[in-house]
Design a protein that fits this description.
binds pyridoxal-5'-phosphate; alpha/beta; six-stranded mixed beta sheet
Length: about 450
């Protein structure tokens, strides 16, 4: 399988070239040159998530140097479950994507990419340095996935004092090949530093740089796999397609679901559940495409004003009518998030994270007839314990900490203080200027 840029100004890339590059040289994300076609009967009944992932992803890696390792890579990425749990009395089910090492769905994609890049870099002369700017969630998933992978180093940059204590723990508890930099600045400063590092001749001379960011093809494919496995389970049980409500920011999770439907999995409607960042819902309602600055909300991992996967969605559905029949979108504000967390805990005993609460709110607003017309599934994108400061006052009790997070909370942390300048980052990475080591 070959990959093209959505912008059409770059040469075709192989699967592994697309994973290594992240973005095409013209700045566009990679999309497959063709699509495989599946039927539900192609997947053996009772196939595990890892087996579905292997079968679904195989044609996307066909002919690539990674193809022979794909069984191991998918098993490594999907080594924790994604259970589909009925919400009793609510008339829908929840796909729990938070049973991985950092308790959010990004663990699947980060682990797939880490397993792939480790194999691709096994014989490289220079180390691969992964630079991640994070406002909280992504950095932890990437650090966890790449921790102790040979031939790869990770630098996580986050805004000092602007992430929650739980998030900071997950960004700073790794050590070994992972370094954590508390940048004296904003998330935008972190992103600017990473961009500048990619252009820096001194850094580029000594190492290969990569971003592992969420636009990477390797982050999307395993996400398509859990939507596929869920749709197959619903299909076998109920004989009808599953429809999904997906808390969305950069549209990576939702696009993966769209791709799964596009290759033939029995998926009905796909609803993009957005917070107050309404770039996509506005566009789907017929307004011009207008990327904007992100607005801070309670569902912070979805605070995206210019979702980069929109290019991939529009490549698949050029023209507004096609797009409008492929997906719909809803907007949920912070007040409604708060109310939904309290209401659903009272009604069903379920505790949602603020992102998942947006999908639950979309279900609550849905007219009864529409709700009954399909097997609805909401994606639970993170465990509520990651956002206990928000959730606990709303439900009036403590959120139990899952074992995965409890393990991370016991690890010692180490972070390095960093000035928001390229010289400081360069010095720290090249070892010329040791950054101040901070031990709390
Ligand atoms: C990243 C994230 C989202 C948004 O997913 P996209 O793929 O960017 O649309 C939603 N919820 C949580 C908890 C996340 O970490």
């Amino acid at each position: 399988m070959q990959y093209h840029s959505t912008r059409g100004e770059s040469p075709a890339a192989s699967f592994s070239q697309a994973l290594l590059a992240g973005l095409a040289p013209d700045g566009g994300p990679y999309i497959p040159a063709g699509w495989p076609r599946f039927e539900p009967a192609d997947f053996p009944p009772g196939a595990t998530l890892a087996q579905v992932a292997r079968q679904l992803i195989a044609p996307f890696a066909a002919g690539d140097i990674l193809a022979p390792a794909m069984a191991e890579i998918t098993a490594d990425a999907c080594n924790f479950p994604a259970p589909l749990v009925a919400v009793d009395g609510a008339g829908y089910s929840v796909l729990e994507l938070f049973h991985g090492p950092t308790a959010a769905f990004k663990d699947f994609g980060a682990r797939f990419l880490a397993a792939s890049l480790t194999r691709l870099r096994a014989t490289a002369a220079k180390p691969l340095e992964i630079l991640v700017a994070t406002s909280g969630d992504t950095g932890g998933a990437v650090a966890a996935a790449f921790h102790r992978r040979p031939g790869i180093r990770v630098a996580v940059l986050y805004p000092r004092g602007l992430v929650s204590p739980a998030q900071e723990q997950q960004l700073t508890c790794w050590g070994d090949n992972v370094r954590s930099f508390a940048v004296r600045g904003s998330f935008d400063d972190c992103q600017r530093l990473v961009k500048a590092a990619f252009m820096d001749p001194a850094l580029r001379a000594t190492r290969d740089l990569s971003s592992a960011n969420s636009i990477n093809l390797g982050r999307l494919l395993p996400q398509a796999a859990y939507h596929a496995a869920t749709a197959l389970a619903v299909w076998r049980r109920e004989g009808r397609p599953a429809s999904f409500v997906i808390p969305s920011g950069n549209l990576g999770n939702a696009l993966a679901c769209v791709w799964a439907r596009h290759v033939g999995l029995p998926i009905g409607e796909i609803v993009l559940a957005h917070n107050a960042n309404r770039t996509v819902p506005d566009f789907l309602s017929g307004l011009p495409w207008q990327p904007r600055r992100s607005i801070a909300t309670l569902a912070s991992a979805m605070d995206v004003g210019d979702p980069s996967n929109m290019e991939r969605l529009r490549a698949l559905y050029p023209g507004l009518p096609a797009l409008q029949s492929a997906v719909t979108a809803e907007v949920v504000d912070d007040a409604a998030i708060r109310e939904r967390i309290a209401a659903d805990y009272a009604a069903y005993g379920r505790i949602w994270c603020p992102h998942t609460a947006i999908a639950a709110e979309v279900m609550a607003r849905m007219p009864e007839a529409r709700r009954r017309s399909a097997a609805w599934v909401i994606a639970a994108t993170a465990h509520p314990a990651k956002f206990r400061e928000i959730v606990e006052p709303l439900i009036g009790r403590a959120v139990p900490t899952p074992d995965s997070l409890a393990r991370l909370y016991e690890l010692p942390v180490a972070k390095e203080d960093l000035a928001p300048q390229l010289e400081a980052l360069r010095g720290a990475l090249l070892g010329a200027i040791p950054a101040a080591r901070v031990q709390p």
